[in-house]
Design brief:
Shape: elongated
Radius of gyration: 36 Å
GO molecular function: diguanylate cyclase activity; GTP binding; lyase activity
Pathway: Purine metabolism; 3',5'-cyclic di-GMP biosynthesis
Structural class: alpha+beta
Largest sheet: 5 strands, mixed
Cofactor: Mg(2+)
Organism: Buttiauxella brennerae ATCC 51605
Bound molecules: guanosine-5'-triphosphate
Number of strands: 5
Order of helices and strands: HHHHHHHHEHHEEHEHE
Catalytic activity: 2 GTP = 3',3'-c-di-GMP + 2 diphosphate
Number of helices: 12
């Protein structure tokens, strides 16, 4: 049975999906931060006893307009994210990205106004706070993180030299140091994010592998007895609800002990794999279940199949077996592998165990009548 292990491209796809989900869940928090910073700037006259420079000489309150735009953008996106029908939709991630780029440009305008008016007191702490809160909420997506932080970073650094104050050099050095801290922090956090996603993917693969082992026969790869019983129970429930027909086909390889004795156990295993393939090829509906019932015994669950349809399946199996014509020199009957088939169809008020017993009885009848044939269970 093949081992289930995700490929690199599957992991990349998962990372992409998780990045989108992460941005949609942490984006609103960051938008709230932007909103609060905006309110602080708008109410700066109340917070700071120092004289204000920005807008003192301007007729149009540009700063207030910029802050208003950030407020509107942030609150509308928070609202849309809350009201969205599908909270993980791809367009939400794109909307958030677009909004963050706009907000970044508006902050650039705001910081420019402060620096150009010679008032750099809040620019550096504010820019640093914005950049680090962006790091906390967007570290898993370098593209979105940089498209928000880079414009602020570059413009504040340039303005620092174009509109110098006595703190210029110190600010610049601090800013470069912060850039180093920012990038190393981003790499560490991103590393943890990727590790968490790949561990989650490994766990998913493991669960898939365990499910596969629990439900499939390791030799032939078809369903095992446990899985067959689960599917039969489900089919019985559906049948009771919809009153649809349901048939079982039980199969046994003829003189298989002699096959093993003649060709060896390894060849016997290969023979069982080929028989399982023939059975699978004979089914038509995706609902049909082919299972290994034990040893050289197989069983087929045919939901929505009448007795006549089950007989057609049995005939197809016999035809399929003749096509590869698996040689059976040790057989006292035919020189190739044949199977005996028992068919039962669910009767009103019957049960799963009775249906299996009836298919078994029909199989026994086929064996009794000389093997290499199908028989149906005849009631009363
Ligand atoms: N190679 C191989 N043989 C198996 C496997 N499981 C069961 N068998 C063999 O299948 C044979 C079943 O033998 P019997 O129950 O006597 O059935 P039979 O020889 O087919 O006789 P009839 O069914 O009456 O035709 C035994 O020899 C088992 O060892 C398996 O996984 N691989």
């Amino acid at each position: 049975m093949p081992e289930i292990r995700s490929s690199q491209s599957e992991l990349e796809t998962r990372l992409k999906t998780m990045r989108r989900r992460a941005i949609i869940s942490s984006g609103p928090w960051f938008l709230w931060i932007n909103l609060l910073f905006c309110l602080f700037i708008l109410g700066r006259h109340y917070f700071s006893p120092l004289p204000q420079f920005v807008n003192d000489t301007q007729e149009i309150p540009v700063l207030e307009i910029l802050m208003g735009l950030i407020l509107i953008t942030s609150s509308s996106v928070i609202f849309i994210l809350r009201m969205a029908h599908d909270p993980h939709a791809e367009w939400l991630g794109k909307l958030l990205h677009g909004a963050l780029v706009c907000i970044s440009v508006l902050w650039v305008g705001c910081f420019y106004l402060f620096l150009a008016s010679g008032d750099s007191r809040i620019v550096f702490p504010f820019a640093a706070l914005l950049i680090f809160t962006a790091l906390i909420s967007l570290y898993f997506d370098a593209r979105i993180l940089l498209s928000f932080t880079l414009p602020i970073w570059v413009v504040v650094l340039i303005c620092n030299f174009v509109y110098p104050s006595e703190l210029t050099m110190l600010n610049a050095v601090l800013y470069v140091l912060l850039a180093g801290l920012f990038e190393s922090g981003r790499r560490i956090l991103r590393g943890w994010f990727v590790l968490a996603i790949s561990r989650e993917q490994e766990t998913r693969d493991l669960i898939k592998q365990l499910k596969m082992l629990a439900n499939h026969d390791p030799l032939t790869g078809i369903a095992n007895r446990r899985s067959f019983h689960l599917q039969l129970d489900k089919a019985m429930q559906r049948q009771q609800q919809c009153n649809m027909p349901l048939s079982l086909v039980m199969l046994d390889v003829d003189h298989f002990k002699k096959y093993n004795d003649y060709y060896g156990h390894q060849a016997g295993d290969e023979c069982l794999i080929k028989v399982a393939k023939c059975l699978e090829d004979a089914t038509r509906s995706t609902q049909d279940v082919v299972a290994r019932f034990g040893g050289e015994e197989f069983i087929m669950l045919l939901p929505d199949a009448t007795e006549q349809q089950a007989i057609e399946v049995a005939k197809r199996i016999q035809q399929n077996l003749q096509v590869p014509g698996i040689a059976h020199a040790g057989s006292p009957a035919t020189p190739w592998v044949t199977i005996s088939i028992g068919i039962s169809t669910l009767q009103p008020g019957s049960s799963a165990s009775r249906l299996i017993a009836e298919a078994d009885a029909a199989l026994y009848k086929a064996k009794e009548h000389g093997r290499n044939q199908w028989q149906t269970f005849t009631h009363g």
